[in-house]
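To whoever is on call:

I kicked off a structure prediction for a single chain this morning and the downstream step that reads the tokens threw a length-mismatch warning. I double-checked the sequence; it's 425 residues and nothing unusual in it as far as I can see. Pasting both halves so you can look.
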Amino acid sequence: MRARLARPSLLIVALLLAAAPAPAQTAADKATARKLAAEGVEFYQAGKYAEALDKLERAEKLYDAPVHLLYIARTQAKLDKPVDAAETYRRLIRVKLEPDAPDVFRQAVDDAKKELPEIEATVPTLRVDVTPADAKNLELSIDGEKVSSAVVGVDRPLNPGEHVIVATADGYARSEQTATVAGGEHKTLTITLKPGAGAPETTGNTEQKATEADAGDEKKLGFFVGLRLLGAIPAGNAGTVAFGPAMMSRDVAMSDLMEAGGGAELHGGLRFMRYFAGKLYLDLFSMRPGSETADDAQVSGVEGGIGAHVGTAPHHLGGFGEIGIGFVQSFELKSENAGCVDDTTWRGGPSLRIGGGAVIPLSKYFQLTPFMVANFSSFNHVSAKVSCEATPALSTTVDRDIQGDEQSGHQLFLLGVGADWLIGG
């Protein structure tokens, strides 16, 4: 049915603009409209419907032609905008053609009459019912646009997709709901207003609407759980510790025990007052052996604590700052060499965590959080057990606290990316 204008469309556009009378347009307007329409039809035939619609609508503004309207309607239908397409088809059908109008104009009107019923069958409707029905000064908005309260209880045509409906009335709290409608679907949404200090929404001011929405979010609590993948870089000193049969004391650098490695963090918590969040976290590490540790040693660590975030609200691109206290920090170094098993554990705490990162929303429920934090702590206990079955004389055990004058500060720098799942709020 649509092929009657599709194949020779570029030639038709050129002929109709050249042949039809247009006393209100200049020659330059006609030439520009001809070029825009031809480009628009090319985009349409190539499946580039957004570009096609832009070109065709601009051509129509310069030169009112039935073929422009026909292709605009077809393009709107391709973009899943049946409401817009149906209105454009109706406008085309209402065009009054002169007796000497080009045949292509008449063909465009005839095609519109045939194609309109197909589009009308795909138009979904949404009926909004509000309880109580007699709420004073009831105001509605759909997708941020104010609509008359006269549409309450009426099937309203909408384009397919997700739509946000907001209702306000004197003496009632602001109510916001989301409805998703598919092509040809007829849905009913019931909004029940709850008593509260509601105020009519000023839909004409975008900034004010955003502020009111933000204020509503401040009253909500939300939860989140997440996973971070991280790289870990140790620095500083572990402390001054005596080892061996002679109990010789020496300073132990973190690089003696371990070098840079990686790990993961599991966390979860509560978001409140929109910009603040508290969490519990557990970090697991796998580090490379240090310079004074056997090459085949396995170095693993764990840290757990609480933290707080402040920064960008959920679902917004921005950043955050983080501070936390780790209550548990432990690293175990285990190796086997020449029949001897060396198992050493360093424990410390509390630790101070400071850092921040970015917030990159992916959807309503997920966000990415690239981050960088630094942990500051010191070890206060060390236990070491060397077991040599073949040479018992080399076996030794150390299990002692590291005294205050023996303790040294060390750091653990963490950087990576995390993903949070947002629940509620």
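Update from on-call: the warning came from a stale cache, not from the record. Cleared it. Sanity check on the structure: Residues 301 and 331 are 4 Å apart (CA to CA).
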